[in-house]
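User: C-alpha cells for FAR1 domain-containing protein, please.
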Amino acid sequence: MELQESSDDTAVYCPQVKADLIPKKNQEFQTLEDVKLFYTAYAQEGGFNIRSWTSRKKDGEVVRMEYVCSKEGTSQITGKKRGRNKTREGCKARIAVVKATDGKYTVTIFVEGHSHPLTTPRRKHLLKCHREVTMVHKSLTEQLSAVNVATCKQYDFLGVHSGGLENIGCTQQDIYNYKRDCRNEVKGHDGDMLHEYFLLEKEKKSFFHFQNRS
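Assistant: Done. Predicted C-alpha cells:
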C-alpha cells in the first residue's frame, strides 16, 4: 500500500499490486462478467472490497456499469449502531465501463486512490470478496455436524485440513451463517417432508394409515 497526498492535503492510499492487475482507461472487456472478475481480482490483491454502484440500461441491456470500493458513500450512524465501525468513508476509488458499438465494454473511469488504509496482506483472506463457503466446506461441516462436533471445532478442523486458518477461504461466521440458512430452509419444509415420509410408509406397509388435520 502506497500512501500519497492529494491536492487538498488529504491522505490517499494506493493498492500495491502487479502491473497487469491494474485497470487502465480505454481497456476493453468482452462482457460485464469479465469486468467484475478483473476488478475483483484487483481488489483482492489490493486489500479492499467492492460493490456495484450504478448501472444504466438501454432497451433492457446494460450499457454502463460502475463498481466502487465498499467504503464509498457515507454511513448514517445512530442509536445502537454508534459503537460499530464505519462501513462507508466517502471513498472515491472506482471503475466505470461503457458498452461500445462493437459490443465490448470500455473503461472510461478508473480512480486508483482510496481515502482509507487498505487491508494488510495478513488479513486479506478475511475480505468478503475473498470468502466463499465451498462445496468441500459444506460437505465436511455436514458430516461433522452429524456426529455432533461443535461449529468452532469444525472450523479448527477445516484449518488443519487447509493448512492454516488463513487458507480456509471463509470465516467461522460464514460457517454459522451457512448452517443457519440450512436450518431455515429445512424449517420451512418440515411439514412437506413429514407428509412425504408418511406416504412412503403407507406404500410399504398396508396397515399404516394417517390422516391430515387442518
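User: Anything notable?

Assistant: Helices lie at 32-46, 135-146, 151-162, 172-187, 190-204.
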